[in-house]
Amino acid sequence: MDRIQIRGGRRLSGDVRISGAKNAALPLMVASLLTDEPLTLAAVPHLTDISQLAEILGGLGVGITMNGNGHAEAETGRVLKLHAKEIKSTEAPYDLVRKMRASFLVIGPLVARCHEAKVSLPGGCAIGTRPVDLHLKALEAMGAEIELKEGYVYARAPKGLHGARVAFPFVSVGATENLMMAAALAKGTTVIENAAMEPEITDLGHCLQKMGAKIEGLDTRTITIEGVDRLHGANHTVLPDRIETGTYLMAVAATGGEVELLGTRGDLIGAVIPLMREAGVTIDETNRGIKVSRNGAHFTGVEVTTEPYPGFPTDLQAQLMALMSTANGTSHISETIFENRFMHVPELLRMGADITIDHQTAVVRGVEKLRGAPVMATDLRASVSLIIAALTAEGETTVNRVYHLDRGFERIEEKLSALGADIKRVKG
Ligand code: UD1
Fold first, then answer.
1. Dihedral sign for Cα atoms in the order 368, 331, 245, 406
2. Mutate which of 99, 107, 172 for ligand 1 pocket (most atoms within 8 A of beta carbon)
3. CA of 66 to the centre of ligand 1 (A)
4. Roughly how many angstroms between the first and final C-alpha of the chain, as a whole number?
5. Interatomic CA distance for residues 188 and 294, integer angstroms
6. Count of C-beta atoms within a 10 Å radius of residue 227
7. C-alpha distances in angstroms, 34 versus 211, 316, 375, 426?
8. Ligand 1 pocket by Cβ (under 6 Å)
9. pLDDT score of 356
10. Neighbour-count burial of 105, counting CB atoms closer than 10 A to its CB (0-12 exposed, 13-18 middle, 19+ buried)
11. For all residues of the chain together, what is the average pLDDT?
12. Angle in degrees, CA 74, 68, 235, rounded to 5
């Protein structure tokens, strides 16, 4: 299993290009199931989650071709052409779905187009129980019969799906996406109340609109979709990755230095910029992206609670904690989205951090220095928080189980190395 070795203490400087967003690319790829014409997606990041989903879609009959590998075509990323001319199977098997929760998104489009689906209950990061009840209730409201058997969800709608009014009890990104895609081909109008409004939802909405879907209310908590008989092909560019953006921002804040993040936008990380400024980090939006710097002055602790967008994202909570481990003063970081998302804490403690957990709040007392240590990546975002900690730590850190990292951060060791970090991947 590959490991990443980092010798900490170097400041970061230069430019880094932010990749297309994984969490936007995944639902966009699934949207290809809704039409028998090709969907072409640009700026698709080169990640194992993307190849996993491509494998699942391939099994359903989607023809996938790919141009570029994200290296020479750094600005455009990889271009994927997905063509679901004919759906050959409506089954997404356990072996593939268990590796990534987002693959459960295929159920809505499959039932909408083929009137049936058999999809394994998902796995993914071990950050809580993460059920799919909201997805299933929404499909039931649209007329699907749902049966759970031997770890699989069987969904059938012999007469097709119809529109419905669905009020989610709390915000779910995946359930909103599943329902939007199903509703696009349902008979009649669907209204989603308490919809997610993450930028990835809006990106999916824009792509569906290009495919001929009738959607109103994107960027609000109420999304209305009037079903159409058929959708057609489209070209779409995946929006920049706001989690990767926030991660590099925090890495630079942690090590000090000055880096321009190219091809990204401040509005995608609305709640993050004021928080970082409050901590004493300089952030400027430029015509190429976002410039972050910290030269000399140290940063201070913060109080933050994770929330659905536009609040502070749960996917940056671990990275913020790694940063705040060496802040001046104490931070309070509360996690409200997932119940088991502090798995990075024991690893940060091994590096000398001073963190205690009180229910859903981590109290992080800034220490002067972290020390390098062998640590273990436990989930996607936790693993990158250990990289940030390692970049500031004294001595060498080895991060084990980096397959988590490869699911979500494109060429991270190359990008950090180009910014001056002492980082290398050890194959094994
Ligand atoms: C997506 C993101 C993930 C991010 C999360 C929250 C993708 C591929 N992944 O995950 O990176 O951390 O949003 O911003 O976009 N829940 C239920 N029942 C459901 C659905 C969700 O109880 O049917 C719960 C979950 O367990 C969790 C909360 O709702 O506690 C939010 O989950 P959700 O927004 O659905 O996250 P994902 O779409 O899985």
1. positive
2. 172
3. 28
4. 5
5. 53
6. 21
7. 9, 32, 43, 41
8. 23, 26, 101-102, 128, 130-135, 172-175, 200, 314-315, 337-338
9. 97
10. buried
11. 93
12. 90
Span 347-362, pLDDT tens digits: 999 999 999 999 999 9
Centre of ligand 1 from the C-alpha of residue 372, in Å = 33
Dihedral (Cα; 87, 93, 98, 104), 10-degree rounding: 30
Whether the per-residue pLDDT at 419 is higher than 70: the answer is yes
Element housing 71 (H / E):
none
Euclidean distance between CA atoms 282 and 194, whole angstroms:
34
Q: 33-56 pLDDT, tens per residue?
A: 999 999 999 999 999 999 999 999
Please check whether residue 221 is in contact with residue 195, taking contact to mean a CB–CB distance below 8 angstroms.
yes
User: From CA 111, how far away is CA 302, in angstroms rounded?
Assistant: 45
Amino acid at 316: L
Distance of CA 249 to the CA centre of its chain: 16
| pLDDT in the model for residue 73 | 44
List, for residues 251-268, the tens digit of each pLDDT value: 999 999 999 999 999 999
